[in-house]
Automatic annotation (TrEMBL):
Belongs to the acyl-CoA dehydrogenase family. InterPro entries: Acyl-CoA_dehydrogenase, Acyl-CoA_Oxase/DH_mid-dom, Acyl-CoA_Oxase/DH_mid-dom_sf, AcylCo_DH-like_C, AcylCo_DH/oxidase_C, AcylCoA_DH/ox_N, AcylCoA_DH/ox_N_sf, AcylCoA_DH/oxidase_NM_dom_sf. This is Acyl-CoA dehydrogenase. Residues 14-127 form the Acyl-CoA dehydrogenase/oxidase N-terminal domain. It comes from Streptomyces colonosanans. The lineage of its organism: Bacteria, Bacillati, Actinomycetota, Actinomycetes, Kitasatosporales.
Length: 393
């Protein structure tokens, strides 16, 4: 069944074998633990520790992280094939050690010596959790120039941060949070924004409330009330946060798109199994032409979206300008997940709305995907503008 939804003729044989091992791990180990992992708390933490230990024992840990940091150094163009299988569950990347990729690369490339020495090893090992805080209440998330959180020079050195952030993924359990703050000038000046790494045990840091996304936990609003950090916790150069953030966003959007493809493939397989095994008085559900149309349209979306996403990953891996490719991939992957999950729910009927399948969670992720990392409208406008100003000669 794997080849129907996941088939990719461009996947090298040695990567295909690794991808299949990861797919088996997610299907056999991670998916059965989803109810516990979704619930949070001590039981979820214990389950995640066990899964990570098993992943390390099977040599599947931290596949895309640089070897210098303790990962396995799988290039993005190769990891892209694995990321789909890994991302079939929201908890797959965390269980397999790739969830820290964006933070690890950011700290490795732009962190001070002190930050790298203190935080990188435990982060890659899965012993440290980092989140990223950019969006603010009442400020458009697509317009970072309007950031109001401030980091002022502190008497005696370092910085003092004041402000609010919201929809911060994983903030409730994080050990560190990277905060986008204004260090110079006033909004909407472009060159006055910096990134600072803040320990969540710092005095003045507070998780204000959980912000469920369509009923699902994992996001939070945080407050920074005069939080002090030293100069060594500045990430990148002062006033140059957007250059670091753009690098992070490009890769982050590709990783999300790959994982959304994996979840769309999972929804497709659930739909396919339902159509084949569910019987009516007149035969299998799959004999109905409208059900066949759902299957066809879903497979078409998967097969046409996958090349877009992998093209963007390859271009980014090669160091080329991938803005157009990433924009196309992000919008296409989000739409595909929503379309396939919706079709799978329709084929399941009432069962697709209840707690006995992963479909409600997959549909929720698909709908949120059209807003996360920039709404569809942002990417559509950005891609169109780049295409229209390109010199055809």
């Amino acid at each position: 069944m794997l080849d129907v939804a996941w088939g990719d003729p461009q996947c090298p044989l040695e990567i295909r074998e690794l991808r299949d091992r990861v797919a088996d791990f997610v299907r056999m180990r991670v998916v059965p633990c989803e109810p516990v992992l979704d619930g949070g708390g001590p039981d979820a933490a214990a389950a995640l520790r066990r899964l990570r230990k098993e992943a390390k024992a099977e040599d599947l840990w931290a596949l895309p992280l640089p070897a210098e940091l303790g990962g396995q150094g799988l290039p993005l163009r190769s990891y892209a094939h694995v990321a789909e299988a890994e991302g079939a569950s929201d908890h797959g990347p965390a269980a397999l050690g790739s969830a820290s990729l964006l933070d690890a690369l950011m700290l490795w490339r732009h962190g001070s010596v002190r930050v790298r020495d203190r935080y990188l090893a435990p982060l890659v090992a899965g012993d440290l959790r980092v989140c990223y805080a950019m969006t603010e209440p009442d400020v458009p998330g697509t317009d970072p120039f309007l950031t109001t959180t401030r980091a002022d020079d502190n008497e005696g050195g370092g910085w003092r941060l004041t402000g609010h952030k919201w929809f911060v993924s994983g903030a409730a359990d994080a050990d560190l949070v990277t905060v986008l703050a204004r260090t110079d000038g006033r909004a909407p000046e472009r060159n006055g924004l910096s990134l600072l790494l803040v320990p969540t045990v710092s005095r003045g840091f507070r998780v204000v409330r959980e912000l469920p996304v369509l009923g699902a936990a994992g996001q939070a609003e945080i407050e920074l009330d005069g939080v002090a950090v030293d100069d060594g916790h500045l990430i990148g150069e002062r006033g140059q946060a957007l250059a670091v953030a753009a690098e992070r966003l490009q890769l982050g959007r590709i990783l999300r798109s790959l994982r959304w493809l994996g979840q769309a493939a999972r929804a497709f397989e659930l739909m396919r199994e339902r159509a084949v095994t569910r019987t009516r008085s007149r035969g299998p559900l799959g004999d109905l032409q409208l059900v066949q149309r759902h299957v066809f349209e879903s497979l078409l979306a998967l097969r046409t979206t996958r090349p877009l996403v992998h093209e963007a990953a390859s271009r980014l891996d090669a160091g080329g300008d991938a803005h157009v490719e990433v924009g196309l991939a992000k919008v296409a992957a989000a739409r595909t997940l929503q379309l396939v999950a919706d079709a799978a729910i329709q084929v399941h009927g009432a069962a697709g709305l209840g707690p006995d399948t992963a479909l409600p969670a997959l549909f929720r992720t698909g709908r949120a995907a059209r807003v996360l990392d920039g709404p569809d409208e942002l990417h559509i406008t950005s891609v169109a503008r780049r295409v229209l100003r390109t010199d055809p000669a």
